[in-house]
């Protein structure tokens, strides 16, 4: 059985499912909560001696990074360094920058290990422009899309799709704020949104034709295994465009994908050098499957919890297999 390193933060509830599965199997693992570096986890990298150690002063253990076989990269966070007194905000930002490169160094040290998804493949796959290109190449149907801050191009696109369109973030909609974190959701736009042309010109919009749904679909791909959930987002007005925006979580049910769609999900995941993905799709009013985006490090615990899919077990299975 492999020795597994889990890279995340203390508040990552999804990883709790993985830890429970590892403990059930009696697996050898270490959970690296990266925000504990450097005060609760001390660093000792002797570059000439090829020693790469982290000492967890809370658990009173020293781990050798080279001893791990597999890596699950989830949600690392940087220490806020509040424990260091009498330094300016500028100095603190500098030190946090140094910390981020210590983490990058850890990823490089581990580069030849087996990763569920390599951090650099995750970063490449997160770009939604790239995702749509790749999905089209695989054979998925995708919404008509445009990224532009040219008013005439935007207006022509709106005309082409019958003035029925949505805007969405190109990457993540999360806005980091320690006091009041916010999220940008997919939003349907109306005529008033285009009156101030200077706002359109000031920054590119990512706009798509609005696809009228029967269901939203969340498809989890783990290696060759595919688990699909249909999300009944159209029951409430507030969740019609973006189900995460609804006041209540919509009903979830298991969904049987057609074999060709299932194979495209597996193919797209593999094409993007991933072993795991969470794909968001739509089953439209005409019964067609429409690709929206692929989340290379997407959340899955709520799906396992609601529908009993063995996602944690399948992830641990992959981490225990041979190869990179």
Task: Give the key terms.
Rossmann fold; 5-stranded antiparallel beta sheet; D-amino Acid Aminotransferase, Chain A, domain 1; 324 residues; 4-stranded parallel beta sheet; 18 strands; Dna Ligase, domain 1; 3 domains
What's the CATH C level of the largest domain? Alpha Beta
CATH superfamily of the largest domain: ATP-grasp fold, B domain
Apparent shape:
globular
How does the major sheet shape up?
5 strands, antiparallel
Structural class: alpha+beta
Rounded Rg? 22 Å
The total beta strand count reads 18
Instruction: Please give the share of residues in helix.
Output: 25-40%
Low-confidence stretches: none
pLDDT averaged over residues: 91
Separation, N- and C-terminal Cα atoms: 16 Å
Named CATH topology of the largest domain:
D-amino Acid Aminotransferase, Chain A, domain 1
The protein's oligomeric status is single chain
Order of helices and strands: EHEEEEEHEHHEHEEEEHEEEEHEEHH
Q: In percent terms, what proportion of residues is strand?
A: 25-35%
Number of helices: 9
Tally of separate domains: 3
CATH architectural grouping of the largest domain: 2-Layer Sandwich
Strand order of the largest sheet: 16-15-14-17-18
């Amino acid at each position: 059985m492999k020795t597994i390193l889990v890279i995340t933060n203390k508040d990552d509830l999804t990883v709790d499912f993985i830890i429970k599965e590892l403990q059930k199997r009696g697996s050898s693992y270490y959970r690296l909560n990266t925000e504990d570096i450097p005060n609760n986890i001390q660093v000792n990298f002797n570059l000439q001696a090829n020693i790469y150690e982290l000492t967890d002063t809370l658990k009173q253990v020293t781990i050798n990074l080279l001893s791990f076989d597999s890596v699950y990269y989830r949600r690392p966070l940087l220490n806020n360094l509040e424990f260091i007194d009498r330094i300016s905000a500028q100095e603190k930002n500098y030190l946090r920058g140094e910390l981020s490169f210590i983490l990058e160094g850890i990823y490089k040290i581990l580069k030849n290990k087996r990763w569920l998804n390599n951090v650099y493949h995750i970063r490449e796959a997160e770009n939604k422009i790239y995702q749509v290109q790749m999905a089209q190449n695989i054979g998925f149907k995708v919404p008509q899309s445009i990224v532009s801050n040219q008013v005439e191009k935007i207006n022509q696109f709106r005309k082409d799709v019958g003035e029925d369109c949505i805007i969405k973030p190109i990457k993540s909609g999360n806005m980091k704020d320690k006091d009041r974190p916010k999220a940008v959701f997919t939003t349907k736009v109306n005529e008033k949104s285009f009156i101030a042309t200077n706002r359109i010109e000031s920054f590119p919009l990512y706009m798509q034709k609005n696809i009228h749904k029967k269901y939203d679909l969340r498809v989890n791909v783990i290696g060759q295994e595919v688990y699909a959930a249909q999300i009944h987002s159209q029951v409430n007005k507030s969740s019609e465009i973006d189900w995460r925006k609804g006041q209540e979580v919509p009903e979830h049910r298991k969904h049987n994908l057609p074999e060709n769609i299932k194979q495209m999900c597996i193919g797209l995941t593999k094409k993007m050098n991933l072993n795991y993905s969470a794909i968001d799709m739509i089953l439209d009013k005409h019964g067609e499957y429409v690709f929206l985006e692929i989340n290379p490090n997407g959340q899955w615990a709520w799906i396992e919890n609601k529908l009993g899919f063995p996602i944690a077990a399948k992830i641990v299975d992959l981490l225990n297999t041979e190869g990179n």
